[in-house]
């Protein structure tokens, strides 16, 4: 698929260029047509550019609404020139080696409606890359990726996304929004029209039959991965240089995430919440997290347990150079810790700075965490083997 654009050829121009020769007095005429199906005169492509009124399309441009199953070409490069929406009953297939570059300041993002699917089929040797088209890219150049599903959330069946107002939520925990394997997504977190920041990848009510494996977020102004309810499971996630949380969980997410490596984030490593407004509403967040490496200062907590908290069972954690390990905020979150609903089974505090603090929690369950030697995501503070060859920033 070479272009998803609408071209309007609105008129043609005939330009006559006359020249006189002092020697021969001859008359020369160059004819330019903007509708002959040929590139001639000063046209920069066929029948567009130069003196022609039509602007030449960006090669391999992506924008608009996909309403039929569409497959991009292997190893091709595409330019995301604005919002791209994958409608229900439609699948966008992105094979290995494809790079999609988003134009900055164009409200560019990719969204998948409820009932739609995106299949990203990268490999370790040939990952799929979503990045910025800027000559010197920076975090916030473009939006990010939004997936909307029919899985349960605690904000209601007809919830709407915080950006662009797409519906999500339902009663099908086995719902599928597609498959993502070996994706690197870079320079996300633009400010939307409602002044909210895009997250690199937002999962809105995404179901457990969505395959999510080997994904790196690199340089984002928003959250890295954010789960708004749903039941999606993940393996091998990496968040690198994210301004807010590396992973954020809220609104009744019930899933499992194995092997997470988060580094270069000064705010929060993993944020776990139930619901910002109705903190005790059901279904409550119930997160199972295993094999985690958290490398960085995390001034607001390597783990932040807040907004009702819900529940979390966390195993095999390695931290390095963190300032605060566990930040527990709000009475409902404190009561969840008191009730042993937030627990960490095996965490190592390595390379502790002088101002290191384990937790601000002063409730009745100080044994909610147990220290132990850990390898975290696989290689302690170092890049794990599963991330070699396809990630950025190391």
In terms of per-residue confidence, which ranges show pLDDT below 50 for 5 or more consecutive residues?
Answer: 1-31
Please compute the radius of gyration using only Cα atoms.
25 Å
First-last Cα distance:
34 Å
Query: What is the residue-mean pLDDT, rounded to a whole number?
Result: 91
Which CATH first-tier class of the largest domain would you pick? Answer: Mainly Beta
Shape: elongated
Q: Note the total helix count.
A: 1
Could you say what the CATH architecture of the largest domain is?
A: 3 Solenoid
Number of strands: 30
* Helix coverage percent: under 10%
Structural category: mainly beta
- How much β-strand is present in the residues? 35-45%
The total tally of domains equals: 2
Largest sheet: 24 strands, parallel
CATH names the topology of the largest domain as Pectate Lyase C-like
Description:
The structure is a single chain. The chain is mostly beta strands and 394 residues long. The protein has two domains: 57 residues, no CATH class; 327 residues, Pectate Lyase C-like. It contains one helix and 30 strands. The chain has a 24-stranded parallel sheet that branches. A two-stranded antiparallel sheet has the order 1-4. The protein is elongated. 48% of the residues are buried.
């Amino acid at each position: 698929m070479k272009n998803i654009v609408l071209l309007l050829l609105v008129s043609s121009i005939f330009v006559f260029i006359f020249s006189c020769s002092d020697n021969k007095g001859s008359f020369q005429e160059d004819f330019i047509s903007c509708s002959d199906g040929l590139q001639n005169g000063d046209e920069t492509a066929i029948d567009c550019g130069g003196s022609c009124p039509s602007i030449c399309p960006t090669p391999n441009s992506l924008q608009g609404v996909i309403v039929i199953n569409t497959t991009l070409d292997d190893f091709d490069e595409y330019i995301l020139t604005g919002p791209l929406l994958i409608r229900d009953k439609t699948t966008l297939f992105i094979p290995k080696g494809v790079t999609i570059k988003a134009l900055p300041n164009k409200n560019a993002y990719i969204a998948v409606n409820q009932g739609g699917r995106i299949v990203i089929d990268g490999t370790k040797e040939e990952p799929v890359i979503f990045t910025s088209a800027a000559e010197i890219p920076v975090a916030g150049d473009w939006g990010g990726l939004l997936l909307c599903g029919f899985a349960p959330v605690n904000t209601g069946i007809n919830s709407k996304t915080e950006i662009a107002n797409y519906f999500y939520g339902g009663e099908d925990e086995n719902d599928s929004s597609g498959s993502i394997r070996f994706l690197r997504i870079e320079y996300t977190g633009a400010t939307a029209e409602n002044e909210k920041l895009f997250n690199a990848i937002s999962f809105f009510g995404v179901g457990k039959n969505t395959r999510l494996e080997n994904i790196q977020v690199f340089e984002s102004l928003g959250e890295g991965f954010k789960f708004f309810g749903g039941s999606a499971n993940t393996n091998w996630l990496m968040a690198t240089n994210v301004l807010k949380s590396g992973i954020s969980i809220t609104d009744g997410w019930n899933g499992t995430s194995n092997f997470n490596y988060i580094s270069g984030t000064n705010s929060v490593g993993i944020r776990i919440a139930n619901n910002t407004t109705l903190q005790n509403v059901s279904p409550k967040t119930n997160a199972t997290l295993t094999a985690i490496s958290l490398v960085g200062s995390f001034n607001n907590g390597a783990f932040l347990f807040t907004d009702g908290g819900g529940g979390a069972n966390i195993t095999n954690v390695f931290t390095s150079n963190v300032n605060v390990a566990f930040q527990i905020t709000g009475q409902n979150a404190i009561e969840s810790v008191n009730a042993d609903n937030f627990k960490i089974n095996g965490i190592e505090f390595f390379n502790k700075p002088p101002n290191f603090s384990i937790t601000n929690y002063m409730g009745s369950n100080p044994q909610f965490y147990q220290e132990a030697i850990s390898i975290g995501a696989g290689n302690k503070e170092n890049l794990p083997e599963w991330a070699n060859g396809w990630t950025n920033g190391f």
